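User
Class, as today's exercise, I want you to study this protein, comparing sequence with structure tokens, and judge whether sequence predicts the tokens.
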Amino acid sequence: MTTPRLQRLRLFRRQAPVLSLASVIALTWLGLSAGPGQAATVANPPTVASPPTVGSGPSGPADEPAHVTDARTPVDHRPPLPASKHELRRDYDGPGKVALKPRPSMQDLKATAACNPADFTSRTGQALVNQIKASTTDCVNTLFNLTGTDAYAAFRETQMTTVAYALRDNGSAYPGNNSTGTAQLTLYLRAGYYVQWYNPSTVGTYGPTLRTAIQSGLDTFFANSHAFDVSDANGETLAEAITLIDSSAQNARYLSIVKRMLTGYNNSYNTSWWMLNAVNNVYTVLFRGHQVPEFVSAVQTDPSVIDTLYGFAADHKDLLSGDQSYLTSNAGRELTRFLQYSALLAKVRPLAKALLGQTSLQGPTAPLWVGVAELADTYDKANCAYYDICNLQAKLAAAVLPINHTCSSTLRIRAQEMTTAQLASSCSSLASQDAYFHGIVADPGPVANDRNTSLEVVVYNSSTDYQTYAGAMWGIDTNNGGMYLEGDPAAVGNQARFIAYEAEWLRPTFAIWNLNHEYTHYLDGRFDMAGDFDAGVSTPTIWWIEGFAEYVSYSYRNETYTAAITEASRRTYALSTLFGTTYSNDTTRIYQWGYLAVRYMLQSHRSDVTTVLNYYRSGNWNAAASYLRTTIGSRYDADWSSWLSACGAGNCGGGGTTLPECAAGDVRALGKNCQRSNRGTTTGNYDYLYINLPAGTAQLQITASGGTGNCDLYYNKTTWATSAAYTQRSTATGNSESITVANPPVGYSYVSLYGATGCNGVTVSSRY
């Protein structure tokens, strides 16, 4: 995930219903598969040196807990809760991870669920109930977006009361699966609480009539003998019902359900994504319960739920080394959170200390140790010596981030585990990106009063380590792909920082996830965006902030942004619409469509980009917004639509940056960051090229583009590359081909265009 340039600490009253989960940006470091290297002899290759060995409010629509296996899994982007900085990352749909059955994003739901709000807003009584039960859950999911008169017609109190009593009637005969539409009724009620929370003046107030009805509905469902069946068929409805406890602020009334779910858990749950979801949703009930006075009073009167949490955490430490780690660590966190009440200190302190004693700061039990330590540090800091957690952030940094490497006067890397070569290649990648960035934006220097002269990159060893440690160390949300913290760039001594991790799923290839995207945020904030993050988003600038970071990341690494090109073919948004993008929009619009908008503008209307950037650099946000909204307005929308059609078909035009022609006299010779244009060959034949690489080259990128026909790209590290002798190849339709070579050998490497059907006018470029 990528995030705004500054973590925003927004305060709310009791958290609104949980928002939907949207797909997080995935900056995939693409690499082509190596092909079989078969020997072939070609006359007169250059002399080859011996190469070295290649080394918030009520729960929202998507119904998925934010349990990420890695940054590529969809996560939740709700506003943070009204809590301390340390808690902003734990806005439970859960900080753990599940990898069993991913759910669709809201954009997918909108595309696949043909739902007409009028089907609900025009009905009352039993007709409304019948319509809800006859709809799909995907359809009901879309109702979380209702506003205005539709919101009132669907979710006014009389409508909600009708549906709550229908849940009661339905729940009495619930068969243990969703054949009778129980999940749809529950989800509709959740949608109502969600929409009313954000639109109270439109929907109207909810009072004791609905409260009585919702209690009746939940009481009946939970009393059903099938309500706790361990199966996927039941799990979906059970998970919805548990979340509805919190949406309706019934956290105190159903503490017994929390305890039953935790004591009833066993390994049989692990085969069902929905049952794991249901168990983890009890932590939502507990976490948000602290904002409900009745909940706090109930626990102080009967603190047995604290014993239940301790028992779960102590008895399920075996989960900490597997995919269900979040269940155990969340239990420890929610137990320790009760330290905020003086009446419960005597109860909670020894249990929290006991869990710390049973676990370690590092190793497989670290998620539980860190979770308990962080909450004890938050709520009982004065007694840190009792827990042996004094100076917790420094204690964690000393143990977890032993590497402190200076790349240059403007860049430092702190890491958990990186080799000398990995540090060098990361420093080199960022240093080279500086020139690439400035070449695109043509800035005159830093914006006024920006003192972020250096960046600190913090690199954890894996996504798991990031999720375990980064929240406690930096006070950030960790259900994402990394976070850039700009701070106040005008403050003396302010340290800009990117919190990141190694993409362990790409090993043995080494890559810091989102490195180039987030580094673009740093450069963009320093050279293009006046002031801090809040100033920069006072008008809609997200199309540029995130779109440009995507654009630089992909174009600098010479990678094809497949997801964005797929979106282009759908032609979902007018360009004039995208200029109004905000962080409240879904991530597909923010990232993929932001990339498309930036790429189009850089390629087709560069002077307009310069005008807008000059406004951004001076902090004249209103002038920039006016220029985009009125001066440009919809004038480019028709051309944009045509461009999208071409881009979706594979012809997006130039990448916005043209490399110089290679300077060597031999027209076959490629070089550093240059290109050979007007290449081609006939069907079945080759156009041979080569490149001489210096020692220490971490990555070589070879691309082909443009022209006519269909030529494929081949690479060989030891001799002329052919279709029978290659170590990597790219064989897409047309001439858009790309090969990335990690740690290429010193000396000559070989590249060729092969005429699948013959080609002309092709440009072959090389970057390293």
Remarks:
- Residues 674-767 form a domain with the Jelly Rolls fold (CATH 2.60.120.380).
